[in-house]
Write a structure and sequence with these properties.
The complex is a heterodimer of chains A (276) and B (245). By secondary structure, chain A is α+β, with helices and mostly antiparallel strands. Chain A contains 6 helices and 12 strands. In chain A, the strands form 3 sheets. In chain A, strands 1, 2, 3, 4, 5 and 6 form a 6-stranded mixed sheet that branches. A 4-stranded antiparallel sheet of chain A has the order 10-9-11-12. The radius of gyration of chain A is 21 Å and the shape is elongated. In chain B, 48% of the residues are buried. Classes of the chains: A alpha+beta (276), B alpha+beta (245).
Chain lengths: 276, 245
Amino acid sequence: MATAFKTVEPLEYYRRFLKENCRPDGRELGEFRATTVNIGSITTADGSALVKLGNTTVICGVKAEVAAPAVDSANKGYIVPNVELPSLCSTRFRSGPPGEEAQAASQFIADVIENSQIIAKEDLCIANGKLAWVLYCDIICLDYDGNILDASVFALLAALKNVQLPSVTINEETGLSEVNLKQKNPLVIRKHPVATSFAIFDDTLLIVDPTAEEEDLATGTVTVVTDEEDRLCSVHKPGGSPLTGAKLQDCITRAITRHKEVKKLIDKVTKSIKPN
Amino acid sequence: MAALELLSAEGFRPDGRRPAELRKLRARMGVFAQPDGSAYIEQGNTKALAVVYGPHEMRGPRSKALPDRALVNCQYSMATFSTGERKRRPHGDRKSSEMSLHLKQTFEAAILTELFPRSQIDIYVQILQADGGNYCACVNAATLAVIDAGIPLRDYVCASSAGLVEDAALADLSYLEEAAGGPQAALALLPTSGQMALLQLDSRLHEDRLGAVLEAAGGACRAVHAVLDRVVREHVRELTALLGD
């Protein structure tokens, strides 16, 4: 009976739950799904992380290459993020060139990297004007159940923390670069941005960490990215129902709390793999 | 510099295996919630993921629907970070298209497609880390995913590669052994009946040697079958235990 009701009147079905301050999956309105992270499982990548947010599964692999820096920023490297939503992760995506959602997510990640200064691009420079690192950060969604942005930002951060770059020197005499694969250095992560997403229901009700179903029924979404100093890196609200300043402030406060949880989790996992 | 020795005088391969020995095979079924069937497999350092949607109504042009059986749609892609050098095109290049076609042909031979006329079965495979035997890992993962989706199969489809080095047939080649460029074959076998679903031999090989290579690949396929069967039985046992509560 319940499943029939859900199929015919999905919105009303949800409203009944929300009225009781809970959700069909048993969470409270302000509760996140179980979050797990697995770091460094892909050995062909220079850094990798698999993040699960409930059913949503995202893998991020970072590949480093060397290239000549751009002329107007001779002392900077590049970070190239890309979010892939293949048809493998959900029936809603078709195979072929990246769709709107994947492109929007890629751009969002690029903006987060730029705004949060997660890595100083100067750190990626090997020789001024000659050689710099390019970090290709490929994020692939393996199972899509909403809140792809939070999972992607988390996976990106965890993968970047896992990156080990070989040391490169330029031989003064020959002008050729020499790579020392034995000596590997971790990247310097300057900031730890963490994204927290909310769905807006019926223009007023805020629920955190929406599933795909909730995202479809919601009248709007908000994503807030903060760093460890509680500074905002990005506030992303793509249209939808309007939101009062007080509600937005509420989102930011909750995002700051969430940041502490995520940071604790990531520290725990990085510490547990260090001894090897 | 001496060429890399693929088989030592004592009969060991570069990674310490015997000629007929497989790499460590680990697999899990039902890893994702969204699709109808899913599986993850690790064969040595090769890691692959397979996801199955269907059988469902035709998506896209309905004229493509087959009146007497289901259409099997396969897509193979490699993660950009799966190889030593970064891959620019994760799918859609010639090699991936060929691999997709081979997977489709393999599974058309194994799935009882005539039970689902006018419908479609999607099989998506993703290589997360490549270390030789990509096709084989994909077939094995896809078999588990198809079983997880509850789609009837004639038999398990088990795949393994085999190559020839100095008259000795090696089973389950790693990337290092594949890259050496010797003769090699990929075989997808339906182990119970012993029928071949797909055999691909890309390089020149004397016909007298084919028997040895096929035997090595066939033996490896049967060993894979034993592992896959155990994984399926364990998975079903776990599921029934959950249902029993």
